[in-house]
Amino acid sequence: MSDVSLTIDGVEVTVPEGTTIWEAAARYGIEIPVLCHDPRLEPVGVCRICAVDVGERTLPAACVRHVEAGMNVITANTEITAHRRILTELMLSDQPEQSRREATTGDDSLYALARELKVSDFPWPDAKSSSNPPRGQDDSSPVIAVDHQACILCDRCVRACDDIQHNDVITRTGKGHSVRIGFDLDVPMAESSCVSCGECVAVCPTGALTHQFLGETS
Amino acid sequence: MENKAEHRLLNALEHIQQTQGAVSDEALKALAAEWGQPLYRLEGLRSFYPVFRETPGAPNRLQICRDGPCRLKGEAAVKALKDALGDRDDIEIEMVSCLGLCDCAPAAALNDSPGPLPDHADIDAWDIKDRHSISEHLPTDPYPDTAAHYSTAAQWLKRPAEEIIAEIDAAGLQGLGGAAFPTARKWQFTRAAQGEPRTVICNADESEPGTFKDRHLLEHAPHLVIEGILIGAAVIGARQGIIYLRHEYQRARAAITKALNKARADGVLGSDAIGPGHDFDIELFISPGGYILGEETALLEALEDRRGEPRHKPPFPTTAGLHGGPTLINNVETLAAVSTILARGASWWREQGIGEHAGLKYVSVSGDVKNPQVLCLPWGTTVAEAIEHCGGMADNRDLLAFSPGGASTPFLPASAAQTPMTFDDLRQAGSGLGTGALFVVGTGRNLAEVLLGQARFFRNESCGKCVPCRVGSNKGVELADAALNHQPNAIDAELAELHQTLMRTSICGLGQVALLPLVDGLKRFPDEPSLQPLRGQTPEAD
């Protein structure tokens, strides 16, 4: 496979054909923020946080877009940062009052991104003022806590369950703004074929899939 | 072809829905065992496509369109009907997205039979057979009778493919599904692309509010569309053709089926259809529903048995489409126009337009005109002339605003009515020709509600794959709805900013345009009273 040369943020880079923009940038020490992407999984490019400017009408997701010879990629500027901030605000606006991940292990990627982008207040209606019904929680499993309200539909758990563990349990169910993750035929997790391997908890970037607390917490 | 269809999960689900009235958990478990598929995959499909229902519901289902022209003209009628039927437990009322019957707004479908919304007194005697039942000879149909059908293909298939492409190029044909991509270039690219399988797809998933021209073409001249597919197949070397038809077009489905059967019986399709040893047939695929499937890569996902969520581009379908092979996807009207152009010649086609404009265009006119209908107009006809062709404005209204190209194209004020209905002229005027769907709004209407209605449509039809579209379209609608219907709030700047993010970062065209008509309308109609609540002002009482 031949090499491709391009420019990322003014840096001349050369990578093998078929490399994504995100991988190429990472290889040269340029970090592009992501939420739905995990290098262990096939990229899906749905959170759009890694949107970059390649001089086209729209901003492609760096995690899925392959490099092209002579491409001139800009990974951050005023416009891109503004979009990343709005996308982050949109996802935050639907979050529950407390992220179970942030409250326990403290590594909720959405909140980390919000801190990095200095997101504080936003004009978008939040989950409480929304006319959409709450998306609910699924506490059926003694091992894994599911908070649908915290889910950003990044698809990481779906891919991890299928592609890493080959357990084939999780799907996106529904359509549009009411999409959720679902187990088997959209049954409670404990009634599904889930084997509680924990891979989904490991890859989830938010408080949607976390380990159940052992006992009560404050 | 039947064999192929049986190998598709979506066809199996459609069959279950048809025969059992629902796709139940038990049916999916049996299907999963039979096909060796995980349950989650079947759940993903069942929950994505609106045709599939988990439970059968009431014996009768009345679907009523909630979009664009139907909402404009039907709110009172819909409310009266709902009130009258409120205590009938044999009828379930469901508000649905555009049914493609904007000429009989408010439109409805009772047990999948489409037609104008009935009066509640007539609901039990619902009869829709009288509408459009007489086959019309369309102005672009070059054939005097059925015996002459497909003679254009017979003649051109003897000639080199390059000559076919050159003739289409000379006619200046552009994609008439809204994107305006030069047809000859698309055919050239797909022909040049390497790989298998090679497929021609007719995108007949017309679902954008205000758009119903493709239905008209399919009902009255399916042979022109089939002939266009056949010629396209010869040019790109395809062995399979697919017509991807929206579920709601029942009459078109019957017309296409009849035409396909006749073409097979006459040897137009089948063995040696496009040359010795080169078989070709066309499958009619009925979409399990949803506007997003008209997005060409979402359509491909559906044909490959997945949730109809658009793919990232590149690669484009011309090089890597259905099952990874080169795929030629054209709109119904584009394929029909190819047949007309090759039958009559590119120079004839060019002469049909006004001035420097080439050809004839089918335009769907809906809203506040006396006789909403599909018109076949010379390219370059103005908006005002199109309205006149429909008998002028209805109910003694004056023209307030119009959207010339479907739900994604911004509304222009009455002062722009002399704009010719062409891609370039309408773009320069600040809107677009889109699908050629002229939605006319008269004075006395609430323009803000009309604009928000367009955003609602896109919000409702978002596939939910990417964050800007899934979350952003919903937040935009909720923000605007609260300001319009509850508490005035100056949100024009926030909506404009949100639209920029949706336009630049959404994966497909749906999210990119979801808030466009609303945000554009706020800028273009500074004095429109109905929009003042979105600027934080209380509208003056009438």
Automatic annotation (TrEMBL), chain B:
<dbReference type="GO" id="GO:0046872">
    <property type="term" value="F:metal ion binding"/>
</dbReference>
<dbReference type="GO" id="GO:0010181">
    <property type="term" value="F:FMN binding"/>
</dbReference>
<keyword id="KW-0411">Iron-sulfur</keyword>
<dbReference type="InterPro" id="IPR037207">
    <property type="entry name" value="Nuop51_4Fe4S-bd_sf"/>
</dbReference>
<dbReference type="Pfam" id="PF01257">
    <property type="entry name" value="2Fe-2S_thioredx"/>
</dbReference>
<dbReference type="Pfam" id="PF01512">
    <property type="entry name" value="Complex1_51K"/>
</dbReference>
<keyword id="KW-0004">4Fe-4S</keyword>
<dbReference type="InterPro" id="IPR011538">
    <property type="entry name" value="Nuo51_FMN-bd"/>
</dbReference>
<dbReference type="InterPro" id="IPR041921">
    <property type="entry name" value="NuoE_N"/>
</dbReference>
<keyword id="KW-0479">Metal-binding</keyword>
<dbReference type="GO" id="GO:0008137">
    <property type="term" value="F:NADH dehydrogenase (ubiquinone) activity"/>
</dbReference>
<protein>
    <recommendedName>
        <fullName>NADH-quinone oxidoreductase subunit F</fullName>
    </recommendedName>
</protein>
<dbReference type="InterPro" id="IPR019554">
    <property type="entry name" value="Soluble_ligand-bd"/>
</dbReference>
<dbReference type="InterPro" id="IPR001949">
    <property type="entry name" value="NADH-UbQ_OxRdtase_51kDa_CS"/>
</dbReference>
<dbReference type="InterPro" id="IPR019575">
    <property type="entry name" value="Nuop51_4Fe4S-bd"/>
</dbReference>
<dbReference type="InterPro" id="IPR037225">
    <property type="entry name" value="Nuo51_FMN-bd_sf"/>
</dbReference>
<feature type="domain" description="NADH-ubiquinone oxidoreductase 51kDa subunit iron-sulphur binding">
    <location>
        <begin position="448"/>
        <end position="493"/>
    </location>
</feature>
<keyword id="KW-0408">Iron</keyword>
<dbReference type="InterPro" id="IPR036249">
    <property type="entry name" value="Thioredoxin-like_sf"/>
</dbReference>
<comment type="similarity">
    <text>Belongs to the complex I 51 kDa subunit family.</text>
</comment>
<dbReference type="GO" id="GO:0051539">
    <property type="term" value="F:4 iron, 4 sulfur cluster binding"/>
</dbReference>
<dbReference type="Pfam" id="PF10589">
    <property type="entry name" value="NADH_4Fe-4S"/>
</dbReference>
<dbReference type="Pfam" id="PF10531">
    <property type="entry name" value="SLBB"/>
</dbReference>
